[in-house]
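Morning!

This is the sequence you dropped in the shared folder:
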Amino acid sequence: MARYAAFLRAINVGGHVVKMDTLRRVFEAMGLTEVKTYIASGNVFFTSALTDTHLLEENISGELREALGYAVTAFIRTPAELSEIARYRPFPDANMEAAGASLYIGFLAEPLPPEAQQKVMSFQTQVDYFHVPGREIYWLCRIRSSESAFSLARLEKALGVQATYRNANTVRKIAANYAMPKN
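The structure's back. Tokens below.
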């Protein structure tokens, strides 16, 4: 059995309220085991005999659509991937630790092609910085994100791909609690 983290898009945002025990039941009904959730934003951890993460994403998204009545996209990461994402430092520490700065991590299904990466970089300003390695988008906002001219919805629309975003502090806590092996 392999361990996974599912980061779900469209959970407890935009008027879609979902209780975490409902998510756990849907995952368990799929035959997934050791199901746990972390905060009410669609972070689910589980074990599965399946090793094809794309198939897991499709199955979970389909079951959640059926159970909840609307589209929910699942982005799966292994514990090793999650640990690497949590440790990754995409910007100089001085920028990431500046007063008022927040780092967000966007989870994608696939790496962006070069032209889409260039599109992301075109949104960069003196306030908003981006870095796009692999299947993640790192957004460093040097002011409150609500005060930035940039928005995640604008990025998604420009790229034509779905993603789900988490604050880097949340991702680090998740990695520390769920991705790292317990001794």
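Headline: The chain has two domains: 2-78, 87-179.

More detail when I'm at my desk.
O.
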